[in-house]
């Protein structure tokens, strides 16, 4: 049997998790498959290191979620994910209420694009909406500011990971099994043959010293998130920038992920409504992100611009509903790009082999659920590469031909 030369373009969560599953596939040996992760800047330097990290049975699309949630649980058990990447189950809900006057001054967001996580929820299906009243242990948002709280799902249906720790762990575990990480920017995919026998033959890239190199390949997995169309221009994926912050609260807070709708007082805010997502994390950290904006995609993760005013406005909004956050310390102010798919089945990433070139696989466009759906994607991709077909699910709806 000839050796497979597998090049994965992109060291985000999708690329690294695919490398993990290929190198942990039952038939993988370091002599029958050579796996290279080609990353332009740094592993988890984009959204995969700066996302919230929510993992949910109620996420979408179902084809991936059906595989991914159980895989997150298994990976955490097998590799001590609790310590290594902060895996834990979490409570969560939709919180609607009013913010109170806060003294810190800051700019406000100018345009808002919902990250659309809530589309996977069926309102009222799991638990009846409570009018006023919070779970007893959700004591870090003020009850007297709460108009409504609706739990998102039942116990054990929502979990979380620390995205940066998860992605870098997947990369390290793949490297332990023989995968190689190369820092360099892919500039072209090479092909041989034509018509029905056209297949990938290699990936051209520019290394850190600025020299051009080629890695031979029999399989190329393009997992470059929002940058995928810079490598394959016909792929309908774009990026939208979103800001986030992490905060060390004044005391450890209980494990809840909140989708908020905050009516803000005109006296201290320039906008009347804020909708930050707020996730308590282990190790006394709280993550919050704001809706996306229209800032164009830069050439690499290193060039992403952070608008400090947006981060300050985000902190001010979450401060308006929680004294524990208001008195806390902001430990990171950052921005990253969400990969959006502009055509094809709604809410679906593109996962599968391209019809026009044997060995060319796309795994990109995971929108607001890439952290959740990475293990499902990686497992199914590993079957496609190592077994020649996807065995653990049916992802025909995600095939590239459905999108372009
Ligand atoms: C604010 C925010 C919060 C989020 N919260 C959650 C959440 O709670 N749960 C969830 O499931 N999802 C969440 N997401 C979505 C999730 O972050 C993304 O879907 C996921 O990170 C996409 O991973 P990726 O590997 O496809 O892309 P990326 O993380 O963008 O990685 C792509 C990689 O490809 C590299 N690359 C690009 N071009 C090249 C090239 N030419 N050559 C080599 N390498 C290249 C880049 O440097 C980058 O490292 C959130 C997203 C945002 C923006």
TrEMBL record:
Domain FAD dependent oxidoreductase residues, every copy: 6-384
Top-level taxon in the UniProt lineage: Eukaryota
GO biological process: retrograde transport, endosome to Golgi
SUPFAM superfamilies named in the record: FAD/NAD(P)-binding domain
Cellular component GO terms held in the UniProt record: cytosol; late endosome
One Pfam family here: DAO
Coiled coil: none
Protein's UniProt name: FAD dependent oxidoreductase
Organism: Schizopora paradoxa
